[in-house]
Write a structure and sequence with these properties.
Elements lengths: L2 H16 L7 H19 L8 H4 L13 H11 L3 E6 L2 E7 H10 L3 E2 L4 E2 L1 H6 L2 H4 L7 E2 L4 H11 L3 E5 L5 E6 H16 L6 H17 L2 E2 H8 L3 H13 L3 E4 L7 E4 L2
Parallel strand pairs: 5-6
Antiparallel strand pairs: 1-2, 3-4, 6-7, 8-10, 9-10
């Protein structure tokens, strides 16, 4: 790991130790809201969730061995911008190492010297993953629904869940973002059929009409016009693009633009 990377890690961990517990992030608030929305919607008979975990999960999973060391774990977390790594031994899931596990051991072992602003690299390399990993791993089967994944994430305050096959082998990872994407698609599909979803249907109809009439228009401009968050506009746009109804243009500078499908 390069010196600059250690500097970033050092500052990040120091801030965590000094600051009080973080307030829920916008994404965490969103998954909480979605969990309640889905639960209530299913109870009220508004929608029925059909999307399975296997439909939205990522199959490219970064893993680590229990015999590996903490420095390599930090390398993986930093390079791929993830918050946890499944631990695999002989093809089987034996644990998971999270940011919380790492912060705890770095505090106990005094690996970060906040007074000298130093990280003891040699100590990082001495600590095996097997010493710090959580062995009681909560997983979800690929056949389960995304509403089940949402429930587990909300209940245990997780950002991601390892996905396993019927034989218990790790085959993927599902994140909060995956759940949001899957639920958004469910809402989109049902919006054309349910009277209780007319608000969403109307907004999508307006979006398509604006894009067709005004030509290329940015997501931010659409957000202001429809009074809908840009993130929601982009999710709808991705679904509409998949259905061949519009195109999304990404530019090096400035927000994405939507245009009518050529």
């Amino acid at each position: 790991m390069h010196g600059n990377m250690f500097e970033k890690l050092k500052k990040g961990f120091q801030e965590r130790f000094k600051k009080p517990p973080k307030k829920p992030s916008p994404k965490e608030k969103k998954i909480k809201e979605i969990h309640h929305t889905v639960t209530n919607a299913v109870k009220d008979g508004i929608i029925k969730i059909h999307t399975k975990v296997s439909d939205v999960m990522s199959k490219q999973v970064k893993t680590i061995s229990p015999d590996d060391n903490l420095r390599n774990a930090l390398d993986i977390l930093s390079e791929y911008m993830i918050t946890g790594i499944p631990v695999i031994k002989e093809g089987k899931l034996v644990g998971i190492v999270s940011e919380a596990d790492i912060i705890k051991v770095m505090d106990i072992r005094k690996i970060i010297d906040s007074e000298k602003d130093e990280i003891n690299v040699s100590e990082l390399e001495k600590i095996k993953i097997s010493e710090i990993m959580s062995k009681d791993v909560i997983t979800i089967n690929k056949k389960e629904l995304i509403s089940d994944a949402s429930e587990l994430m909300y209940r245990h305050h997780f950002n991601r869940l390892p996905v396993v096959s019927d034989k218990g082998r790790l085959i993927g990872i599902v994140t909060k973002e995956d759940i949001i994407r899957g639920i958004t698609k469910e809402f989109f599909d049902k919006s054309m059929k349910s009277d209780k979803m007319k608000v969403i249907q109307t907004d999508i109809d307006k979006l398509i009409e604006i894009v067709e009439n005004k030509g290329p228009i940015t997501i931010l401009d659409l957000s202001k016009e429809l009074e809908v968050e840009p993130e929601q506009i982009e999710e709808w746009a991705k679904i509409l693009e998949e259905r061949g109804m519009i195109e999304i243009e990404y530019h090096p500078i400035g927000p994405p633009k939507l245009r009518k499908k050529k």
